[in-house]
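FAQ
Q: What does a multi-component entry look like?
A: The components come first, one per line:
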Amino acid sequence: MTETGQRTPSRDVQGALVDAAERVLVRDGTAGLTVRAVATEAGVAPMGVYNRFGNKYGLVAAVLVRGFDALAASVRGDDADAPQDRLAGCGRRYRRFALGNREHYEAMFGTAVPSDARAAASTTELDEHAAAAFGVLVGEVSRAMDAGVLRRDDPAETAQVIWSAVHGAVSLELAGVTQAGDPEASFERLLAALLSGLS
Amino acid sequence: MTETGQRTPSRDVQGALVDAAERVLVRDGTAGLTVRAVATEAGVAPMGVYNRFGNKYGLVAAVLVRGFDALAASVRGDDADAPQDRLAGCGRRYRRFALGNREHYEAMFGTAVPSDARAAASTTELDEHAAAAFGVLVGEVSRAMDAGVLRRDDPAETAQVIWSAVHGAVSLELAGVTQAGDPEASFERLLAALLSGLS
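Then the predicted structure of the entire assembly, as tokens:
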């Protein structure tokens, strides 16, 4: 998600450090995302990273906040879609986000970033951005209920069910451990079965 | 899954080493599952582990083979269940297996064991046991189709859809990142929506 080529002289140092952290994450995975590696990548002294992010987990949190914002933007419904296709479109874009940002996705929802590390990070901001991304899906589910595409129910709980299922398909595809069928076709089957069962 | 108290003098050394590896996995996670740690845990020389398992990944594979066998046994349908409840029962036992064997589950289906490590391990045996566990679900799906509980379709592809969804709910619960609802109630909603959509 680094905006290569869009950096300007006015781009702030904090942003440049998160850019560097994203490059390190993509190259070396979550385990490699250390203050030292990011300082080297950004060409600054480690103290410059500590001063801004506190520690490794503050840096991870800053990367994940960007990830949740990008996911929220990806998942938002497309006004060009017919009401009955809109949620499936959200699901497809969710899958594309995960496949195109594998390291971010795994850090956001996997267990590579242990929960005690999450707790040590500036979780308030991180939790807010994660909740906002989920909120986009809840809004789409509400809209689908209003349009009669999904049956009326608690939108957040219905959104959780959709997210769980979609996350599962994407996770098994990312891990390369699916057992049957082409992953894209299987994802379409999942969307169709789930949305039908919730309609 | 270590069978504490059931060890007998005739229990073979290989089995005792896998027992030790399971204890190390549960205690220290996948990253801590090294030949040295397992040798220490089992009270043998590291060479004794190398001789039997080749390397760390051979040891991981042996643990995962056990995990898949235990999962297969957990997921198998209960003949006491009515046909229309049988698949939901499989799903509930799958969730209980994952929650009760968190470290095994993450090693089996997560990205903690990188795919190149899987490839380095004795994958033939591992793949066979993973496929056999999936095969139990495929058999249950076939049976549900025969009973008219699920609509007729390719049983393996339908099983993949069910597995994906169930895995997703369980993974988010294990990672502690769900956004809405009680995880157990949310799991029940997922099962009901999915099985309805596939019926």
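Q: Is there any commentary attached?
A: Sometimes. For this entry: Residues 64-197 of chain A form a domain with the Tetracycline Repressor; domain 2 fold (CATH 1.10.357.10).
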